[in-house]
Amino acid sequence: MKTIIKVISGTLLLGISQLAGGCKKDSTPPARNFEATIDVNGLRRNYIVNLPPAYHEDTATYALVIGLHGTGGNARQFEEHYGFSQKADEAGFIAVYPNGVTGNGTMSIRTWNAGSCCDYAMRKNIADVQFISTLIDKMINSYRVDPKRVYVTGMSNGGMMAYRLAAELPGKIAAIAPVSSTMVHSPPATQARAVPILHLHSILDEIVPYYGGSNRLGYYFPPVDSVLRIWSLRNGYNPGQQVIVDDGRYKLVQWMDGNGEPSIVHYLTKDGGHSWPGGQRARQRADPPSQVIDANDLIWEFFSRHKLE
Length: 309
Prior knowledge:
Layout: H1 2-22, E1 33-40, E2 43-50, E3 62-68, H2 75-81, H3 84-91, E4 94-98, E5 101-102, E6 110-111, H4 119-123, H5 128-142, E7 145-155, H6 157-168, E8 175-179, E9 197-202, E10 213-214, E11 220-221, H7 224-234, E12 242-246, E13 250-256, E14 262-269, H8 295-303
Parallel strand pairs: 3-4, 3-7, 7-8, 8-9, 9-14
Antiparallel strand pairs: 1-2, 2-4, 5-6, 10-11, 12-13, 13-14
């Protein structure tokens, strides 16, 4: 009986060994670009994550850039039309693209509750600040995100949301970069921490007029230069702006912080419109993007100079 058991045991072991040797390793690389969800304030919110090419091969920590789409856009549209994941891969930062809530109207467009704009998210007072705050925590806890290097950029309504986040989450966000937008939120009376700002706009923008006023959809927007002056005071910077460039292509102005560094920077292009400089047209009838500046390059160059203390 013992001999039989040994033989059977040996045979079984041989079979298992052969089976194991015949199995091939799964050569599928870990996902770098994927969709995920998180529950916030009774709503299931979704977003897209794009990890750098080397993420699964090293142990480094990475900066995180949150990209917020505009009214009627969405996370994938932001990523693809603006080529932002390509920039993230080249520069080596993690990008995350959250989706705004979908309205219940006939068009069912996605929006953010940035204050007095826009649409469904504004009317229903959606807790978008809580969503982004929770998402930042989720990204830091789940991925190798450097909590001192978390940034927010956004297009149009997404840029308006970036201003609100800078006012309400200054301890989590190192800097913001609104594009084709303005501030439509009444911020707290005092700013707990100065938040560096890069603002990109076109003088030809009729959706969010640079000089302020109501657009054809009936929304009123404050003048951009006034918003930036307010933020220079909120941040405790010298309120006097410096004009660096003013030619036929664009105007570049900046406000200096206490160390003499440009911490509010503003590009006003003479071409383009309500669009992402250097990107693609979001749709057939959309304004052409500016060709004199590249938003992705300027945004990352600005972000890479700032981090939380």
